[in-house]
Automatic annotation (TrEMBL), chain A:
It comes from Nocardiopsis alba. CDD domains: ABC_NrtD_SsuB_transporters. InterPro entries: AAA+_ATPase (IPR003593), ABC_transporter-like_ATP-bd (IPR003439), ABC_transporter-like_CS (IPR017871), ABC_transporter_ATP-bind (IPR050166), P-loop_NTPase (IPR027417). GO terms for molecular function: ATP binding. Pfam families: ABC_tran. Keywords: ATP-binding, Nucleotide-binding, Transport. Residues 14-238 form the ABC transporter domain. This is ABC transporter ATP-binding protein.
Automatic annotation (TrEMBL), chain B:
Signal peptide: none annotated. The chain crosses the membrane at residues 99-118, 201-222, 257-278. The keyword Membrane applies. This is ABC transporter permease. Belongs to the binding-protein-dependent transport system permease family. Its main location: membrane. Keywords: Cell membrane, Membrane, Transmembrane, Transmembrane helix, Transport. It is found in: Cell membrane. Residues 92-275 form the ABC transmembrane type-1 domain.
Length: 256, 290
């Protein structure tokens, strides 16, 4: 593809190039994504916004390599990709510490090193002292922070997040936005953050990509203005969110 | 930076608020522990007393003469005398050895079949419903065939125990594996869990609670098959609980007969308590119930 030369390699962590994803065959086939191209700069926080049926989750699965696109290509180069979901999906039979150790076991990290890094990651997500608790003893927000620590234990520098705070109450979500922003900066992560919450997208993203529904396509991109750390209730965020919401409504009403 | 420190304490404050203090479990004095044990025990004691009373009432009613249907006043002393004899312990030892060996065999067969069925789709289509069918079969119908195959021997009993218990164990394992939550599977996939490691770190522990339920059911079938087997397949001169039961019947010794029935009940309860304990502590650990 000719577009590949547009930006030099190394500055882009993820390049999604004209991908198409079709599920099923023949008359029952569903096109989830149709000709989507997104480039994510290394260290960028990209928020991906869309209504139902925009193929957000499919997009992340493709970037994570869990599925293969029907057409086009996804390149992540040497970057290691981790993923988080709306549900923490921690292993309930393991303690918090042992959960964080799982990806390290997969990567054959020696035991002493694992213990050291569990302590470090727990400190990062401010859960020092909870190492021996079980997931069901924690609150939803704490579980998501453990899931974040577990994702980071994969040694990933690209973090895919599929509505990770969707099931949390507003106050917890607010605090986790601060936490995620802090960890994103401290660890120089590249984040692809899927959400259907416009304000959340504007609060967190350097850039917001708006997707159409059925099939999923990029319909608009917004560079977010405002110094970090931002406040979700600031006027600046609200104004930008209003613009994006209008655009999103337009897209949704197209399906009426 | 003061701003950061307020944010720090906001995180910690929220954590502290969201972790509800566990009510009443923190400090329990010996008096409360004793009260707890008593609260759990007295209904059981009352139930036993009620059963004994009902039993005695039937005896008093004169429904059957006392040498056929003795009351607890005659059976219980026989029972207590019986459990002091070496023959009794020999019988229990033989029966329990058969039970454990049979159950272990059923476990091995059940696990292999369960894993195979959960792995290979054609196999599931082929024998999946057969396994369910076998579970519904009263295992006693296998005994004539088992005796034809193995003669009057322990092997015949083992054969029927395995046929009775293995389907439940296999079924528990297969449904345990089938019902591993998709979100856990996805998390495992994202973390790169594959092959043996995927089974060791994810599938097996996730399937464990349902597997234990299968084991419990399998044990119930094994125990029934064994009792039926010991009554039907009387191996010459070998002492066992089943043999003691049929001996007592032949000698019209109703007191001993009822004693051994109580023993069979007691063993069943003890093993059931064990399985329930295992089941409950697993579920608590897994966070399914608190």
């Amino acid at each position: 593809m000719s577009t590949i030369t547009e930006s030099p390699t190394g500055t882009n962590a993820v390049r999604i190039d004209d991908i198409t994803k079709v599920f099923g065959r023949g008359a029952g086939a569903v096109t989830a994504i149709d000709g989507m191209s997104i480039e994510i700069r290394t260290g960028e926080f990209l928020a991906i916004l869309g209504a139902s049926g925009c193929g957000k989750s499919t997009l992340l699965s493709l970037v994570a390599g869990l599925e293969q696109p029907t057409g086009g290509s996804v390149e992540v180069g040497d970057h290691r990709v981790a993923m988080m979901f709306q549900e923490a999906a921690l292993f309930p039979w393991l303690t918090v510490g042992a959960n964080i150790e799982v990806p390290m076991k997969v990567n054959k990290v020696p035991r002493a090193e694992r213990a050291r890094r569990v302590a470090e990651l727990l400190d990062l997500v401010r859960l020092t002292g909870f190492e021996r608790k079980r997931p069901h003893e924690l609150s939803g927000g704490m579980r998501q922070r453990v899931a974040l620590a577990r994702a980071l234990a994969q040694d990933a520098d690209v973090l895919l997040m599929d509505e990770p705070f969707g099931a949390l109450d507003a106050m917890t979500r607010d605090i986790l936005h601060d936490e995620l922003e802090r960890i994103w900066r401290e660890r120089s992560l590249t984040v692809m953050f899927v959400t259907h919450n416009v304000r959340e997208a504007v609060r967190l993203g350097d850039r917001v990509v708006l997707l159409s529904s059925r099939p999923g396509r990029v319909i608009a991109e917004f560079e977010v203005e405002g110094e970090r750390p931002r406040r979700i209730d600031s006027v600046q965020i609200a104004e930008q969110a209003a613009t994006i919401t209008d655009r999103l409504r337009e897209e949704v009403s197209r399906h009426a | 930076m003061p701003e950061t420190s307020t944010k720090d304490s906001a995180v910690q404050g929220l954590d502290a608020l969201e972790l509800q203090p566990r009510r009443g479990t923190a400090e329990r004095g010996p008096a409360e522990v004793a009260r707890g044990i008593w609260a759990a025990t007295w209904p059981k004691l009352a139930a036993v007393a009620l059963v004994l009373l009902a039993w005695q009432a039937v005896v008093w009613s004169g429904w059957r003469s006392e040498w056929v249907f003795p009351g607890p006043d005659r059976v219980l002393p026989t029972l207590f005398h019986e459990i002091t004899t070496p023959e009794f312990w020999e019988a229990v030892r033989v029966t329990m050895r058969r039970a454990f060996i049979g159950f272990a065999l059923a476990l091995a067969v059940g696990v292999v079949i369960g894993l195979a069925v959960s792995q290979f789709k054609p196999l599931r289509v082929a024998i999946g419903s057969l396994i369910t069918g076998l579970q519904t079969m009263p295992s006693i119908v296998w005994f004539p065939f088992a005796m034809l195959l193995y003669g009057i021997s322990e092997s015949a009993i083992m054969f029927v125990i395995v046929l009775g218990a293995a389907p439940s164990i296999a079924g528990g394992l297969t449904s345990g594996i089938d019902y591993v939550s998709p979100s856990l599977l996805r998390a495992g996939q994202v973390m790169g869990l594959r092959g043996v490691q995927r089974y060791r770190l994810l599938i097996i522990p996730a399937a464990l609670p349902m597997f234990v339920t299968g084991l419990k059911q399998g044990w119930a079938f094994a125990w029934r098959s064994l009792m039926a087997g010991e009554l039907l397949v009387i191996i010459n001169q070998q002492n066992s609980i089943g043999w003691a039961l049929s001996q007592a019947r032949q000698l019209n010794d109703a007191e001993r007969l009822l004693s051994y029935i109580i023993i069979v009940l007691a063993i069943g309860i003890v093993i059931d308590v064990f399985f329930n304990w295992a089941d409950r502590s697993l579920r608590r650990r897994w966070g399914i119930t608190r």
